[in-house]
Amino acid sequence: GIYSTNSAFIPHLSLHPSLSHTHPIMNAGIKPSDAALQAYTDLQLKHKYHYIIYHLKDNTSIEVEETLSAEEKFEFDDFHGKIIKHQNEPRFVVVDFKGKSKDGRDISKIFFIYWSPDSAKIKPKMVYSSCENSFRAALTGISKRIQANDPGDIDEDALNAQLH
Known about the structure:
About 25% of the residues lie in helices and about 25% in strands. It is built from 4 helices and 6 strands, in the order βαββαββαβα. It has a 6-stranded mixed beta sheet with strand order 1-3-2-4-5-6, sandwiched between helices.
């Protein structure tokens, strides 16, 4: 009858395969590529990079989009600009951030930045959000997670404050 509990009569319980990529729950299966994980290991253990910017490729995997080799000079304004230029879609960023301790010693910490600009559309935000925790959990040795929704959230003063 009309009140049957048979799932065939409840369309939202069965998801057509061609629609699965648009369903937020399905996005939780997005995994980092081997290269994405290797880049992090190279940053963390071999100090090969200053930072890594990750993006979602085709909503199927987390991939390296851009890096800055440790052999190159780290310019904060360049780093900041490479993140905030992404106004329509989030990014994951890992940075080996260096600064001074309160007593003047050189210190560095690995920050995980979840850049999710207010101007981004809701769907990409949902997709990135759905896979952020599992991705971050795969990256051992992160000192701090920083949620950034506007450029001021990750300016130099904001990151320096996170060192302490």
